[in-house]
Amino acid sequence: MARNLHVAAAQLGPIQKTDDRKSAVNRLLALLRQAAAKKAELVVFPELALTTFFPRWFVENISDADHWYETEMPSPITAPLFDEAKKLGVGFCLGYAELTPSKQRFNTQILVDQKGVVVAKYRKVHIPGHEENEPDRPFQHAERYYFAPSDEGFGVWKAFGGRIGMMICNDRRWPESYRVMGLQGVEMILCGYNTPLHYVPDPSQDVLQGFHNALVMQSGAYQNGTFVVGVAKGGVEEGVDSLADSSIIAPSGEILAKTQTNSDEVITAVCDLDWCANYKSTLFDFDRYRRPEVYGRITGQRGAILG
Ligand code: CDV
């Protein structure tokens, strides 16, 4: 019998600087209800889904940015999302900026079950961009100023009848992210993202953003025998155009569903988690074919060492 998990990618259009948390939560609620109406059991929202992508501005004193972060989850403002999820009997995955009691700052994603309980938390490992103000840029991408890279790594949790992993945005470009989860038998990876279309220095490469987004997630899915759900906050946010192209990808690497707009939009797919075993037990039978004894450089060094 199939081990089906009906998953939804709930893409957001832009959230502007003046949009408050309440309006963001109302949009998430609308998406949650649309996904539930389509019979989804798990709804995946993007990275930093409660605010605009604030690392595009620099502030001299980081505490002046505290208002972009959540200090509790749920909070009075986000509680309606948890309550509605429980009422509808759907789980969700939500990205937000986290400020801990010891004033650590993380780019975080949580997994909430169908009873509205947080069952897993992931903090972004690969933090792109820059640490300092770079005023010559058309917009900042100061993620490395606003977020600490997590040392907790990539967990996999037994939830929703399968093994669920999480990663955030830039993590999806690194094969190590998928493989660490693959080595824990992951069956579905949930990934929110904010990807500015004009990030790379050479504007002629902008057109490749969609290709690269699909390339990394389809490869990661196939090479690890897992579903991948990639969910964007797309569209023009504060003058910065960002990639949409949210998608649900099968362990074969095929795209099962993809958004058509760069606005709020829900897509769904019924994912038979048993499909993962077709790849995990044949071509990518790790136990049989992997050669960790010759992969030492992967964890032994960071940059390339030229001989
Ligand atoms: N939010 C991100 O991590 N964005 C990066 C951009 C800056 C390259 C990404 O990998 O899409």
Supply the key terms:
single chain; 307 residues; alpha/beta; Nitrilase/N-carbamoyl-D-aminoacid amidohydrolase; six-stranded mixed β-sheet; 14 strands; 23% helix; globular; binds 3-methyl-2-ureido-butyric acid
Short description:
The protein has 307 residues and is α/β, with parallel strands linked by helices.
Number of strands: 14
CATH topology: Nitrilase/N-carbamoyl-D-aminoacid amidohydrolase
Name the strands of the widest sheet in spatial order: 5-4-3-2-1-14
Strand content range: 25-35%
Total DSSP helices: 8
CATH architecture: 4-Layer Sandwich
| Annotated CATH homologous superfamily | Carbon-nitrogen hydrolase
CATH class: Alpha Beta
Give an overview in words.
- There is one protein chain.
- With 307 residues, the protein is of the alpha/beta class.
- It has a single domain, classed as Carbon-nitrogen hydrolase (Nitrilase/N-carbamoyl-D-aminoacid amidohydrolase, 4-Layer Sandwich), CATH 3.60.110.10.
- It is 23% helix and 25% strand.
- The strands form 3 sheets. A 6-stranded mixed beta sheet has the order 5-4-3-2-1-14, covered by helices on one side. A 6-stranded mixed beta sheet has the order 6-7-8-9-12-13, covered by helices on one side. Strands 10-11 form a two-stranded antiparallel ribbon.
- Helix 1 packs parallel to helix 2 (79-88) and helix 4 packs parallel to helix 5.
- The longest helix is centred in the first third of the chain and has 17 residues, at 21-37.
- The protein is globular.
- The termini are far apart.
- The mean pLDDT is 97.
- 3-methyl-2-ureido-butyric acid is lined by residues 47, 128-129, 141, 169-170, 173, 193-195, 199.
